Amino acid sequence: MSNPAVVVDDVSKKFRLYHERNLSLKSAVMRGRTSRHDEFWALRNVSFDVEAGQTYGIIGSNGSGKSTLLKCLAKIYWPTSGAITYNGKMASLLEVGSGFHYELSGRENIFLNGSILGMSKKEIESKLDSIIEFSGVERFIDQPVKNYSSGMYVRLGFSVAIHVQPDILVVDEVLSVGDEEFQRKSFEKFLDLKREGKTIILVSHALDTVAEICDQVSWIEKGVLRQSGAAPKVVEAYRANASD
Amino acid sequence: MASSPSWTRTYFRDVRNSGELLWNLTQREVRGKYKRTALGQLWSLANPIAAIIVYTFIFSVVFQVPAQVGDPSGLNNYALWLVCGLLPWMFFNATVTQGVRSIIDNANLVQKVYFPRLVLPVSLTGAALVNWTLEMAVLVIALAIVGSFVWPWLPLVVLFMVVLALFAAGFSMILSIANVYFRDMAYLITVILQFWFYLTPILYPITLVQAQSDKWGGLLGTPVTLEALYKLNPLEPYVAIFRDLLYHNTFPETGSIIAALAWAVGTFGLGLFYFVKTEKRLAELI
After folding, report:
1. Does B28 lie at the interface with A, CB-CB under 8 angstroms?
2. pLDDT averages per 10-residue partition of chain B, 286 residues
3. Looking at CA atoms only, how far is residue B20 from chain A in angstroms?
4. Do A121 and B20 count as a contact with CB atoms less than 8 A apart?
5. CATH no., domain A4-89+202-243
6. Which of A159, A161, B4, B185 could be stapled to A135 by a disulfide with Cβ–Cβ 3.0 to 4.6 Å?
């Protein structure tokens, strides 16, 4: 048995739901420093391991806490208690084209976006041709991205993201960008990563996709882990529960 | 949540590793700003030039501020004397007014990707530093033309540009987080900067303040003088240092150097501490 690539150990996340949040100095001064809030546990004592090389799915209905879990995995939120440990370099893909600057050219934005996603300049340079080719915007690569169609924009963003090549990839439902042909191409690319032995954590509503490509699945409900196990079994249980 | 020493260490490692990201974000600010304008980067010189013309007319021609003779440089030119103090201020002003919004303006980025948020205010400082360097280059040429022997002092000028940049970066780091908690910080700071500008001896020499201070003596029966209050202003030593080096061509006073270094290290350190402490919660506070 190999080492787990990601260990989610007893993770809980509490949010404050503010009734009257002191977002201005005036209100802070008028009311004193107190602001009224309720506590809300988006995640409670969630634990699971992701083995290296696995494709791991996280499913759950809206408001189940799976997005919070995703953001905790992507290091955007930090657990209130518990810990997540990574064995390898982690990169997250929650949005395509993060930090694109409208006035800069596609080429300049590849470098900008790539470094935001954690690639070094050398790495980007060596993959530049492949990124441009995959995006299919060769002709417009030196045009400012403000002139891009929304399709071209997300294709370029996705193309950069898919070239990051971390050991562990945390993905939101961004697989479905661009037209049908591009979607097929990106799905292929995704399977390539899987074949290369990358660890992938996927948060998705698309149950068929999850059942098809994931090895293991965790089902989150109201912030609590309902069930973890082999993909078909958990997806089945989730479906049965949803139709009740 | 207490920040464990291991978190602090992890954080500083992440910060050290984000050099390229910092560079790229700085370039984004510099290049994106004047992209596809006819004059491009030259626009960044438009503001200082307009300010110099206006202030020189008002303070040198209308109000007739006493002649500022460079010692030992022998220069006698109000406009140049003014610019030596005005450019550092304009750099500080630009860094702070943009830096205070840096986290809020990049909310979408902060909520979608992990990277040390520290690079956001620092990259804006870097972008402002690029503009300032350009302005300083023009100033040095102008000074050389009118006979200031500025060349030997340039290494020190560059050094203190870095020191002021540290101070400005630290200050905008603190403000950028404060602005996440209190959104009106950005508006408040523009008002404060107005006062700050006129309370710093940039348009007028500090000798005028000293004369008034001597006349008044201790304020309200205390031993505190007006001049002593003026020296509390963190920017006062910086303005004095840049004038000494560029206009007077002399070594700055030790007191100014110590004050400038202390403000820079203290403020930057406080900014770092503040970021280490709140970084983890920024995404949910936005």
Report:
1. yes
2. 65 85 88 74 84 91 87 88 96 96 91 90 95 94 90 96 98 95 90 96 92 85 86 95 95 96 97 92 86
3. 7
4. yes
5. 3.40.50.300
6. A159
**CB-CB under 8 Å, B31 with A98:** no
Q: In what order do the strands lie in the sheet containing A168-171?
A: A90-93, A168-171, A199-203, A55-59, A216-221, A224-230
C-alpha distances (whole Å) from A239 to each of A192, B45, B81, B83 are 29, 64, 77, 71
**Neighbouring C-alpha atoms within 13 Å toward the C-beta of B182:** 17
* Nearest residue to B105 via CA among B94, B117, B116, B114: B117
Instruction: Name the phi and psi angles at B152, rounded to 5.
Output: -65, -20
| Amino acid residing at A74 | A
Range of the domain at B13: 5-285
By C-alpha distance, the chain A residue nearest B180 is A23
DSSP single-letter state for residue A97: S
| pLDDT score of B3 | 46
Segment A183-198, tens digit of pLDDT: 888 888 888 888 998 9
B113 contact A CB<8A? yes
Residue of B nearest to A143 (CA): B36
Smallest CA–CA distance, residue A56 to chain B, in Å, is 20
DSSP annotation of A119 reads -
Residue A94 · residue B113 · CB < 8 Å: yes
Kindly tell me the burial class for residue A138, based on how many C-beta atoms sit within 10 Å of its own C-beta (0-12, 13-18, 19 or more): exposed
A222 min Cα distance to partner chain B (Å): 19
- Res. A34 pLDDT band, cuts 50 70 90: low
Residue B108 C-alpha, separation from nearest chain A C-alpha, in angstroms: 8
How much is the pTM? 0.89
- pLDDT tier at A33 (50, 70, 90 boundaries)? low
Q: Would you say residue A2 has pLDDT above 70?
A: no
Test mutation, A115, A119, A164, A173, chain B, max B CBs within 10 A: A115
Kindly list the residues from chain A whose CB atom is less than 8 angstroms away from the CB atom of residue B25: 99, 112
B230 vs B224: CA distance, rounded Å: 11
> Pick from B193, B182, B181: which is nearest to B93 by CA?
B193
What type of residue is A57? G
For residue B272, the one-letter residue type is L
| Residue ranges per structural domain of chain A | 4-89+202-243
Average pLDDT of the segment spanning A44-73: 91
Q: Which amino acid is at A173?
A: E
The predicted model gives A137-150 an average pLDDT of 90
When CB atoms are compared, the residue of B21, B32, B183 closest to A103 is B32
